Amino acid sequence: MLTLANEIECMKDNYQLDPIIATLEKGGTILYPTDTIWGLGCDATNALAVEKIFDLKKRERSKPFVLLVSSIEMLKQYVEHVHPRVETLLLFHKKPLTFIYNQAMNLPEISFDRGGSVAIRIPHDDFCKKLIDRYGKPLVATSANISEEPFPKYFGEISSAVIQEVDYVVKYRQADRTMGAPSVIAKLNDPLKAELVFLRE
Questions:
Q1: Is the separation of the CB atoms in 44 and 139 below 8 Å?
Q2: Is 70 helix (H, G, I), strand (E, B) or coil?
């Protein structure tokens, strides 16, 4: 949870977390800037909320979303094992890194694939980390577009159809025209040998 000092810092940064948290607590959906691109999000532990994101994106249920957590400590609450080499990579990797873990836990089935694996990222972005810290649970993070359509690189590229379907649109960074890009994706090919494989760089 955020300390009082961090709460004050959030207010200074005009993050306006309270209405976002209220939306998430009610099982609502949000449109928010992640550490990569603008994304659709919700409480990843709320199956009905995750269903809403699938419906909004018109996406197959067999393709689960990336989840965001705020720290390695939070990560360990939702995956059975974090290999020491992976933990080191998470601490020192410079680019946004989504890692695929073999066995999810404490999550509804809709938030991981049929084999039990789950894709999770710890964002370096200050806003995302403070939001997740404050909420205390992982968030879904998927590009703010209908499946098979191009992903928006900044807020101005998000279609009005998507904006109108979410329960809350985060006001932070809407004027930012920085071109966003998807994260690096990696996994352990052989957990015993700790062989890292990068699926997208």
A1: yes
A2: coil
Task: State the Cα–Cα distance between residues 140 and 43, nearest whole angstrom.
Answer: 6
Would you kindly state where each structural domain of the chain is located, as residue ranges? Answer: 4-200
Residue 157 in this model has a pLDDT that exceeds 60: yes
State the distance between the two ends of the chain, measured CA to CA, in whole angstroms. 32
CATH of the domain spanning 4-200: 3.90.870.10
Q: What ranges in 13-112 are assigned the alpha helix state H? A: 17-25, 47-57, 72-75, 84-92
The Cα–Cα gap between 129 and 125 comes to 6
- The contacts of residue 139 (CB under 8 Å, 6+ apart) are 24, 41, 42, 43, 44, 67, 68, 131, 132
Ramachandran area for residue 58 (φ above 0: left; ψ -120 to 50: alpha; else beta): left
Please indicate whether residue 6 or residue 162 has the higher confidence score (pLDDT): 162
Torsion of CA 108, 113, 117, 121, to 10 degrees: -80
Mean pLDDT value across residues 156-164: 95
- Strands 66-68 and 118-121 come out as parallel
| Paired tokens of 103 | 């066995």
